[in-house]
Amino acid sequence: MKAIVVTDQEAGPAGMTLTERSEPKAAGNDVLVEVHASGFTPGELEWPSTWVDRLGRDRTPSIPGHEVAGVVSALGYGTRGLSVGQRVFGLADWTRDGTLAQYVAIEARNLAPLPGDVDFTVGASLPISGLTAWQGLFVHGRFQQGQSVLVHGAAGGVGSMVTQLAGQAGAYVIGTGRAADREAAVGFGAQEFVDLDNDTLEDVGGIDLVFDVIGGDIGKRSAALVRPGGMLVTIAGPPETQPKDGLAVDFVVEADRAQLGEIVRRVREGRLRTNIGRVVNLDDAVSAFNSTERIKGKTVVRP
Ligand SMILES: NC(=O)c1ccc[n+]([C@@H]2O[C@H](COP(=O)([O-])OP(=O)(O)OC[C@H]3O[C@@H](n4cnc5c(N)ncnc54)[C@H](OP(=O)(O)O)[C@@H]3O)[C@@H](O)[C@H]2O)c1
Protein backbone atom coordinates (compact mmCIF):
# COMPACT_ATOMS: atom_id res chain seq x y z
CA MET A 1 0.00 0.00 0.00
CA LYS A 2 1.00 3.64 -0.34
CA ALA A 3 1.96 5.37 2.90
CA ILE A 4 3.78 8.46 4.13
CA VAL A 5 6.61 7.63 6.52
CA VAL A 6 8.96 9.62 8.72
CA THR A 7 12.40 8.53 9.95
CA ASP A 8 14.16 11.74 11.03
CA GLN A 9 12.76 13.75 13.94
CA GLU A 10 14.97 16.76 13.22
CA ALA A 11 13.71 17.07 9.63
CA GLY A 12 10.07 17.95 10.50
CA PRO A 13 7.60 17.78 7.57
CA ALA A 14 10.58 17.93 5.13
CA GLY A 15 11.39 14.39 6.28
CA MET A 16 8.02 12.99 5.15
CA THR A 17 8.30 10.51 2.26
CA LEU A 18 5.62 8.77 0.19
CA THR A 19 6.58 5.11 -0.08
CA GLU A 20 5.28 1.53 -0.41
CA ARG A 21 4.61 -0.38 2.81
CA SER A 22 3.01 -3.74 3.44
CA GLU A 23 -0.62 -3.63 4.56
CA PRO A 24 -0.97 -3.78 8.36
CA LYS A 25 -2.67 -6.78 10.00
CA ALA A 26 -5.58 -6.40 12.38
CA ALA A 27 -4.33 -7.58 15.82
CA GLY A 28 -6.60 -8.69 18.67
CA ASN A 29 -9.53 -6.27 19.16
CA ASP A 30 -8.42 -4.32 16.07
CA VAL A 31 -10.13 -3.60 12.83
CA LEU A 32 -8.33 -3.00 9.56
CA VAL A 33 -9.72 0.18 7.99
CA GLU A 34 -9.49 1.03 4.32
CA VAL A 35 -8.72 4.73 4.63
CA HIS A 36 -11.01 7.05 2.62
CA ALA A 37 -9.80 10.24 4.32
CA SER A 38 -7.32 11.11 7.03
CA GLY A 39 -6.14 14.06 9.09
CA PHE A 40 -2.70 15.08 10.36
CA THR A 41 -1.71 17.59 13.02
CA PRO A 42 1.76 19.12 12.40
CA GLY A 43 2.57 18.96 16.14
CA GLU A 44 2.62 15.15 15.87
CA LEU A 45 6.15 15.22 14.48
CA GLU A 46 7.36 16.71 17.78
CA TRP A 47 5.59 14.15 19.98
CA PRO A 48 7.69 11.22 21.30
CA SER A 49 4.89 8.80 20.33
CA THR A 50 5.71 9.36 16.65
CA TRP A 51 9.24 8.08 17.20
CA VAL A 52 9.17 5.50 20.02
CA ASP A 53 6.69 2.99 21.37
CA ARG A 54 5.38 2.92 24.95
CA LEU A 55 8.58 1.23 26.14
CA GLY A 56 10.73 3.89 24.49
CA ARG A 57 11.87 1.62 21.64
CA ASP A 58 12.51 3.17 18.23
CA ARG A 59 9.51 2.57 15.97
CA THR A 60 10.69 4.37 12.84
CA PRO A 61 9.96 4.41 9.98
CA SER A 62 6.56 5.38 11.36
CA ILE A 63 3.40 6.51 9.59
CA PRO A 64 1.96 9.77 10.99
CA GLY A 65 -1.70 10.85 10.92
CA HIS A 66 -4.21 9.79 13.57
CA GLU A 67 -7.58 10.87 12.28
CA VAL A 68 -9.39 8.49 9.98
CA ALA A 69 -12.64 7.96 8.14
CA GLY A 70 -13.02 4.82 6.09
CA VAL A 71 -14.52 1.36 5.77
CA VAL A 72 -13.76 -1.70 7.91
CA SER A 73 -12.08 -4.30 5.70
CA ALA A 74 -11.09 -6.98 8.27
CA LEU A 75 -11.53 -7.82 11.96
CA GLY A 76 -8.86 -9.01 14.39
CA TYR A 77 -9.34 -11.89 16.82
CA GLY A 78 -12.00 -11.09 19.41
CA THR A 79 -13.10 -7.81 17.82
CA ARG A 80 -16.69 -6.93 18.71
CA GLY A 81 -19.01 -4.05 17.90
CA LEU A 82 -18.03 -3.30 14.29
CA SER A 83 -18.39 -5.33 11.13
CA VAL A 84 -16.68 -5.67 7.76
CA GLY A 85 -18.02 -3.09 5.28
CA GLN A 86 -19.07 -0.64 8.01
CA ARG A 87 -18.29 3.08 7.62
CA VAL A 88 -16.29 4.32 10.61
CA PHE A 89 -14.31 7.30 11.84
CA GLY A 90 -12.09 7.92 14.84
CA LEU A 91 -8.75 8.54 16.46
CA ALA A 92 -5.83 6.12 15.97
CA ASP A 93 -3.41 5.28 18.78
CA TRP A 94 -0.51 7.76 19.01
CA THR A 95 2.15 5.03 19.38
CA ARG A 96 1.11 2.95 16.36
CA ASP A 97 1.37 3.51 12.63
CA GLY A 98 -1.20 6.09 11.60
CA THR A 99 -3.61 7.06 8.89
CA LEU A 100 -1.56 8.75 6.12
CA ALA A 101 -1.80 5.46 4.23
CA GLN A 102 -4.27 3.35 2.31
CA TYR A 103 -4.95 1.09 5.33
CA VAL A 104 -4.60 1.41 9.09
CA ALA A 105 -4.99 -1.18 11.88
CA ILE A 106 -6.75 0.37 14.83
CA GLU A 107 -8.49 -0.77 18.00
CA ALA A 108 -12.24 -1.02 17.40
CA ARG A 109 -13.00 0.95 20.57
CA ASN A 110 -11.22 3.99 19.08
CA LEU A 111 -13.79 4.17 16.28
CA ALA A 112 -17.45 5.08 15.95
CA PRO A 113 -19.89 4.41 13.11
CA LEU A 114 -19.88 7.16 10.47
CA PRO A 115 -23.46 7.77 9.28
CA GLY A 116 -24.00 7.24 5.54
CA ASP A 117 -24.90 10.88 4.95
CA VAL A 118 -21.65 12.24 6.44
CA ASP A 119 -18.85 12.52 3.92
CA PHE A 120 -15.54 10.74 4.66
CA THR A 121 -13.73 14.09 4.34
CA VAL A 122 -15.92 15.58 7.05
CA GLY A 123 -15.54 12.44 9.19
CA ALA A 124 -11.73 12.62 9.06
CA SER A 125 -11.75 16.29 10.08
CA LEU A 126 -13.68 15.68 13.30
CA PRO A 127 -11.86 13.33 15.69
CA ILE A 128 -9.00 15.48 17.06
CA SER A 129 -10.66 18.88 17.02
CA GLY A 130 -14.08 17.57 18.04
CA LEU A 131 -12.93 15.27 20.84
CA THR A 132 -10.40 17.82 22.17
CA ALA A 133 -13.08 20.51 22.33
CA TRP A 134 -15.61 18.15 23.92
CA GLN A 135 -13.21 16.79 26.53
CA GLY A 136 -11.73 20.21 27.36
CA LEU A 137 -15.12 21.80 27.88
CA PHE A 138 -17.29 19.07 29.36
CA VAL A 139 -14.90 16.54 30.94
CA HIS A 140 -11.85 18.48 32.16
CA GLY A 141 -13.41 21.96 32.20
CA ARG A 142 -16.67 20.83 33.87
CA PHE A 143 -18.49 23.55 31.94
CA GLN A 144 -21.87 24.64 33.27
CA GLN A 145 -24.61 26.46 31.40
CA GLY A 146 -24.38 30.24 31.70
CA GLN A 147 -20.61 30.36 32.24
CA SER A 148 -18.28 32.63 30.28
CA VAL A 149 -15.71 30.85 28.08
CA LEU A 150 -12.69 32.54 26.51
CA VAL A 151 -11.46 30.51 23.52
CA HIS A 152 -7.97 31.22 22.22
CA GLY A 153 -7.44 30.54 18.51
CA ALA A 154 -11.20 30.58 17.96
CA ALA A 155 -10.86 30.42 14.17
CA GLY A 156 -8.56 27.36 14.28
CA GLY A 157 -9.26 23.63 14.25
CA VAL A 158 -9.89 23.07 17.97
CA GLY A 159 -10.95 26.64 18.80
CA SER A 160 -13.75 26.70 16.22
CA MET A 161 -15.20 23.51 17.75
CA VAL A 162 -14.91 24.88 21.30
CA THR A 163 -16.61 28.10 20.23
CA GLN A 164 -19.56 26.26 18.67
CA LEU A 165 -19.99 23.63 21.40
CA ALA A 166 -19.70 26.18 24.21
CA GLY A 167 -22.18 28.57 22.56
CA GLN A 168 -24.73 25.80 22.05
CA ALA A 169 -24.31 24.67 25.64
CA GLY A 170 -25.26 28.14 26.86
CA ALA A 171 -21.90 29.89 27.30
CA TYR A 172 -21.05 33.53 26.73
CA VAL A 173 -18.15 33.03 24.31
CA ILE A 174 -15.21 35.36 23.78
CA GLY A 175 -12.94 34.27 20.96
CA THR A 176 -9.34 35.37 20.38
CA GLY A 177 -6.91 35.19 17.50
CA ARG A 178 -5.29 37.35 14.87
CA ALA A 179 -7.04 40.42 13.45
CA ALA A 180 -7.94 38.51 10.28
CA ASP A 181 -9.65 35.78 12.34
CA ARG A 182 -12.39 38.03 13.75
CA GLU A 183 -14.99 37.28 11.08
CA ALA A 184 -14.44 33.53 11.21
CA ALA A 185 -14.57 33.47 15.03
CA VAL A 186 -17.82 35.44 15.07
CA GLY A 187 -19.14 33.14 12.35
CA PHE A 188 -18.50 30.17 14.64
CA GLY A 189 -20.52 31.91 17.34
CA ALA A 190 -18.13 34.08 19.39
CA GLN A 191 -20.04 36.98 20.93
CA GLU A 192 -16.88 39.05 21.41
CA PHE A 193 -13.44 38.87 19.85
CA VAL A 194 -10.02 39.85 21.19
CA ASP A 195 -7.42 40.57 18.50
CA LEU A 196 -4.29 39.32 20.27
CA ASP A 197 -2.01 41.53 18.15
CA ASN A 198 -3.85 44.82 18.72
CA ASP A 199 -6.21 44.53 21.72
CA THR A 200 -5.24 44.14 25.37
CA LEU A 201 -6.09 40.62 26.51
CA GLU A 202 -6.10 41.77 30.14
CA ASP A 203 -9.09 44.04 29.44
CA VAL A 204 -11.17 40.85 29.57
CA GLY A 205 -11.37 39.39 33.05
CA GLY A 206 -13.42 37.31 35.43
CA ILE A 207 -13.74 34.41 32.99
CA ASP A 208 -15.20 31.10 34.20
CA LEU A 209 -13.30 28.90 31.73
CA VAL A 210 -10.31 29.87 29.57
CA PHE A 211 -9.53 27.32 26.82
CA ASP A 212 -5.93 27.79 25.67
CA VAL A 213 -4.63 26.25 22.44
CA ILE A 214 -1.67 28.64 22.06
CA GLY A 215 0.45 28.43 25.25
CA GLY A 216 3.69 30.40 25.72
CA ASP A 217 3.23 34.05 26.67
CA ILE A 218 -0.52 33.92 25.87
CA GLY A 219 -0.86 30.91 28.17
CA LYS A 220 0.95 32.69 31.01
CA ARG A 221 -1.18 35.82 30.67
CA SER A 222 -4.35 33.73 30.50
CA ALA A 223 -4.14 32.47 34.08
CA ALA A 224 -4.89 35.97 35.37
CA LEU A 225 -8.13 36.12 33.35
CA VAL A 226 -9.71 33.27 35.33
CA ARG A 227 -12.15 34.33 38.04
CA PRO A 228 -11.86 32.85 41.55
CA GLY A 229 -13.13 29.27 41.34
CA GLY A 230 -12.73 29.23 37.56
CA MET A 231 -10.65 27.02 35.31
CA LEU A 232 -7.79 27.27 32.80
CA VAL A 233 -7.92 24.35 30.38
CA THR A 234 -4.90 24.02 28.11
CA ILE A 235 -3.89 21.67 25.31
CA ALA A 236 -0.57 23.44 24.69
CA GLY A 237 1.45 21.65 27.40
CA PRO A 238 1.55 22.07 31.18
CA PRO A 239 0.60 25.65 32.15
CA GLU A 240 3.54 27.72 33.42
CA THR A 241 1.26 29.98 35.47
CA GLN A 242 -1.71 28.82 37.55
CA PRO A 243 -4.85 30.88 38.14
CA LYS A 244 -4.59 32.52 41.57
CA ASP A 245 -7.81 31.11 42.99
CA GLY A 246 -8.74 28.66 40.29
CA LEU A 247 -7.67 25.39 38.72
CA ALA A 248 -5.50 24.63 35.71
CA VAL A 249 -5.66 21.40 33.75
CA ASP A 250 -3.73 20.25 30.70
CA PHE A 251 -4.65 17.08 28.89
CA VAL A 252 -4.11 15.01 25.76
CA VAL A 253 -7.18 14.04 23.75
CA GLU A 254 -8.37 10.43 23.97
CA ALA A 255 -10.51 8.30 21.67
CA ASP A 256 -14.11 7.93 22.85
CA ARG A 257 -16.84 6.25 20.82
CA ALA A 258 -19.76 7.84 22.65
CA GLN A 259 -18.32 11.36 22.30
CA LEU A 260 -17.60 10.78 18.59
CA GLY A 261 -21.26 9.80 18.26
CA GLU A 262 -22.40 13.01 19.94
CA ILE A 263 -20.12 15.10 17.73
CA VAL A 264 -21.24 13.53 14.45
CA ARG A 265 -24.89 13.78 15.54
CA ARG A 266 -24.46 17.56 15.86
CA VAL A 267 -22.79 17.69 12.43
CA ARG A 268 -25.76 15.86 10.86
CA GLU A 269 -28.19 18.18 12.59
CA GLY A 270 -26.34 21.16 11.14
CA ARG A 271 -25.35 22.37 14.61
CA LEU A 272 -21.60 21.82 14.24
CA ARG A 273 -19.56 23.06 11.31
CA THR A 274 -16.20 21.46 10.69
CA ASN A 275 -13.21 23.57 9.73
CA ILE A 276 -11.57 22.10 6.61
CA GLY A 277 -8.87 24.26 5.01
CA ARG A 278 -7.98 22.06 2.04
CA VAL A 279 -8.34 18.52 0.69
CA VAL A 280 -5.34 16.87 -1.02
CA ASN A 281 -4.54 13.44 -2.47
CA LEU A 282 -2.08 11.17 -0.65
CA ASP A 283 0.29 11.60 -3.63
CA ASP A 284 0.34 15.39 -3.08
CA ALA A 285 0.23 15.39 0.72
CA VAL A 286 3.98 15.66 1.38
CA SER A 287 4.27 18.80 -0.73
CA ALA A 288 1.07 20.19 0.84
CA PHE A 289 2.47 19.70 4.35
CA ASN A 290 5.71 21.41 3.28
CA SER A 291 4.03 24.35 1.59
CA THR A 292 4.44 27.80 3.14
CA GLU A 293 0.91 28.75 2.07
CA ARG A 294 -1.12 29.78 5.11
CA ILE A 295 -4.12 27.46 5.39
CA LYS A 296 -6.84 28.04 7.98
CA GLY A 297 -8.41 24.81 9.15
CA LYS A 298 -7.67 21.14 8.71
CA THR A 299 -5.84 19.55 5.80
CA VAL A 300 -7.69 16.35 4.89
CA VAL A 301 -5.84 13.73 2.84
CA ARG A 302 -7.67 11.34 0.50
CA PRO A 303 -5.76 8.27 -0.73
N1 LIG B 1 -3.27 18.21 23.89
C1 LIG B 1 -4.06 17.75 22.93
O1 LIG B 1 -4.74 16.75 23.09
C2 LIG B 1 -4.16 18.49 21.63
C3 LIG B 1 -5.20 18.17 20.76
C4 LIG B 1 -5.33 18.90 19.56
C5 LIG B 1 -4.42 19.91 19.27
N2 LIG B 1 -3.40 20.16 20.14
C6 LIG B 1 -2.46 21.26 19.87
O2 LIG B 1 -3.21 22.45 20.01
C7 LIG B 1 -2.73 23.44 19.13
C8 LIG B 1 -3.87 24.01 18.31
O3 LIG B 1 -4.36 23.00 17.42
P1 LIG B 1 -5.35 23.41 16.22
O4 LIG B 1 -5.56 22.19 15.42
O5 LIG B 1 -6.51 24.13 16.76
O6 LIG B 1 -4.39 24.44 15.43
P2 LIG B 1 -4.82 25.58 14.40
O7 LIG B 1 -5.92 25.10 13.51
O8 LIG B 1 -3.56 26.07 13.78
O9 LIG B 1 -5.46 26.71 15.34
C9 LIG B 1 -4.72 27.54 16.18
C10 LIG B 1 -5.26 28.95 16.00
O10 LIG B 1 -4.63 29.82 16.95
C11 LIG B 1 -4.06 30.93 16.24
N3 LIG B 1 -2.86 31.39 16.92
C12 LIG B 1 -1.77 30.67 17.25
N4 LIG B 1 -0.86 31.45 17.87
C13 LIG B 1 -1.39 32.69 17.92
C14 LIG B 1 -0.94 33.94 18.44
N5 LIG B 1 0.24 34.05 19.04
N6 LIG B 1 -1.75 35.01 18.31
C15 LIG B 1 -2.95 34.91 17.70
N7 LIG B 1 -3.44 33.76 17.20
C16 LIG B 1 -2.66 32.66 17.31
C17 LIG B 1 -3.72 30.36 14.88
O11 LIG B 1 -3.54 31.39 13.94
P3 LIG B 1 -2.36 31.23 12.83
O12 LIG B 1 -2.76 30.03 12.02
O13 LIG B 1 -2.42 32.51 12.10
O14 LIG B 1 -1.08 31.00 13.59
C18 LIG B 1 -4.95 29.50 14.61
O15 LIG B 1 -6.05 30.26 14.16
C19 LIG B 1 -1.63 22.75 18.30
O16 LIG B 1 -0.39 23.06 18.89
C20 LIG B 1 -1.92 21.28 18.46
O17 LIG B 1 -0.77 20.47 18.31
C21 LIG B 1 -3.25 19.48 21.31
Automatic annotation (TrEMBL):
<dbReference type="InterPro" id="IPR011032">
    <property type="entry name" value="GroES-like_sf"/>
</dbReference>
<dbReference type="InterPro" id="IPR020843">
    <property type="entry name" value="ER"/>
</dbReference>
<dbReference type="Pfam" id="PF08240">
    <property type="entry name" value="ADH_N"/>
</dbReference>
<dbReference type="InterPro" id="IPR036291">
    <property type="entry name" value="NAD(P)-bd_dom_sf"/>
</dbReference>
<dbReference type="InterPro" id="IPR050700">
    <property type="entry name" value="YIM1/Zinc_Alcohol_DH_Fams"/>
</dbReference>
<protein>
    <submittedName>
        <fullName>NADP-dependent oxidoreductase</fullName>
    </submittedName>
</protein>
<feature type="domain" description="Enoyl reductase (ER)">
    <location>
        <begin position="12"/>
        <end position="301"/>
    </location>
</feature>
<dbReference type="Pfam" id="PF13602">
    <property type="entry name" value="ADH_zinc_N_2"/>
</dbReference>
<dbReference type="InterPro" id="IPR013154">
    <property type="entry name" value="ADH-like_N"/>
</dbReference>
